[in-house]
């Protein structure tokens, strides 16, 4: 994939932010993002982490979703994702932040009330051969409104760290098969 095409794809992924507004052009969040959040678990939670690699390119795209059972707007959400080699060495990390993420309209009764689709891209030294670890570490920082709109007052900042599995997807023209981790 030419570098300019990869950056165009990154721009498209970076602006994909599901804010609950039903639009014909936006697909619903993936099923993994819409599962109920178990009581007592972290909220918001990070789910469905994918590394999208292209054969011969040092650029990888990272996608994931941030889900919350709370129906309030996230004034801010930032996540940093580590990219580790197969032997556990940190190769690189990438971060992305979002503001004013609105809850879903008409969410399922037992599902998340807010879902943010996250996307970022970074370069990884080709010497690692896209042979990444099957797990990653994601650091998530959020600030939610303490009250529903329109009286949104900033709540306390929350920080959580997640050790999560990664799906490595081989993004080849014509639809390649996922790479083995």
Show the helix and strand layout.
Elements: H1 3-15, E1 45-53, E2 59-68, E3 74-84, E4 90-101, E5 114-123, E6 135-145, E7 154-170
Parallel strand pairs: 1-7
Antiparallel strand pairs: 1-2, 2-5, 3-4, 3-6, 6-7
Mind explaining what this structure looks like?
- The longest helix has 13 residues, at 3-15.
- It is elongated and about 50 Å long.
- It starts with a helix and ends in an 11-residue tail after the last strand.
- Strands 4-3-6-7-1-2-5 form a seven-stranded mixed β-sheet, with helices on one face.
- The protein has one helix spanning 3-15; strands at 45-53, 59-68, 74-84, 90-101, 114-123, 135-145, 154-170.
- 27% of the residues are buried.
- It is built from one helix and seven strands.
Helical content, roughly?
under 10%
Cα distance, first to last residue?
Answer: 21 Å
Query: Which H/E pattern describes the elements?
Result: HEEEEEEE
Instruction: State the strand order across the main sheet.
Output: 4-3-6-7-1-2-5
Tally the beta strands: 7
Q: Structural class, judged by helices and strands?
A: mainly beta
Report the average pLDDT across residues.
82
**Could you give a short account of the major beta sheet?**
7 strands, mixed
Percent of residues in beta strands: 35-45%
Q: Mind telling me the C-alpha Rg?
A: 17 Å
Spans of at least 5 consecutive residues with low confidence? 1-24, 174-181
Tally of individual helices: 1
Query: What characteristic shape results from the CA principal axes?
Result: elongated
